[in-house]
């Protein structure tokens, strides 16, 4: 009888089991929002360690002294319902979505790195270039825009081939070859 009682019955009230996870949910939502997009997307080893330790640090805040199955189920249900409500509100009201999600950040514009935006997002140029290479962009000149999304992922838009620009480049290349050929010929006297 004692084992069954310990599995399902707790000394913590049901209301406390509901309020605790909701408070921790909103704390983490705000903390991760302030922490930046990097925590949510392409994490480094340091970021992963912080998130794992963070989950362990708030565990007792969510369940308190309750180790019962019912306490865990009630806490998990409160978290899921809270998340469902926040997602629905963010979907319905753009201001809430902007508050929760933030906005995307332009990191590269027309082949030029925007260092002030990298600094704001705490991303090194080496990390940016690594992510660009992963997506098949070796040369910054090929990047029209690289955007750090609110989810932490990087969206990269390729420069479109401008027919007028290609035509001008082709003419300049031909002139350069003609010029080289003229200078390489022996000068007739």
TrEMBL record:
Residues 93-163 form the YetF C-terminal domain. Keywords: Cell membrane, Membrane, Transmembrane, Transmembrane helix. It is a multi-pass membrane protein. One of its GO terms (cellular component) is plasma membrane. Belongs to the UPF0702 family. It comes from Drouetiella hepatica Uher 2000/2452. It comes from the Bacteria. It is found in: Cell membrane. InterPro entries: DUF421, UPF0702_alpha/beta_dom_sf. The keyword Transport does not apply. This is DUF421 domain-containing protein. The keyword Phosphoprotein does not apply. Its main location: membrane. Signal peptide: none annotated. Coiled coil: none annotated.
């Amino acid at each position: 009888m004692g084992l069954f009682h310990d599995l399902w019955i707790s000394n913590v009230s049901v209301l406390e089991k509901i309020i605790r996870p909701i408070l921790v949910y909103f704390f983490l939502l705000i903390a991760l929002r302030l922490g930046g997009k990097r925590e949510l997307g392409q994490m480094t080893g340091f970021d992963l360690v912080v998130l794992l330790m963070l989950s362990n640090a708030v565990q007792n805040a969510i369940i308190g002294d309750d180790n019962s199955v019912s306490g865990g189920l009630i806490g998990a249900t409160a978290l899921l319902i809270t998340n469902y409500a926040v997602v629905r509100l963010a979907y319905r009201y753009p201001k809430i979505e902007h508050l929760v999600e933030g906005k995307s950040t332009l990191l590269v514009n027309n082949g030029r790195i925007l260092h002030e935006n990298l600094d704001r997002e705490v991303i090194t140029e080496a990390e940016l270039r690594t992510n660009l290479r992963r997506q098949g962009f070796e040369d910054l000149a090929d990047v029209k825009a690289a955007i750090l999304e609110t989810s932490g992922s990087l969206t990269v838009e390729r420069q479109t081939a401008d027919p007028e620009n290609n035509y001008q480049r082709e003419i300049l290349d031909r002139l350069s070859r003609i010029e080289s050929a003229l200078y390489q010929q022996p000068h007739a006297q």
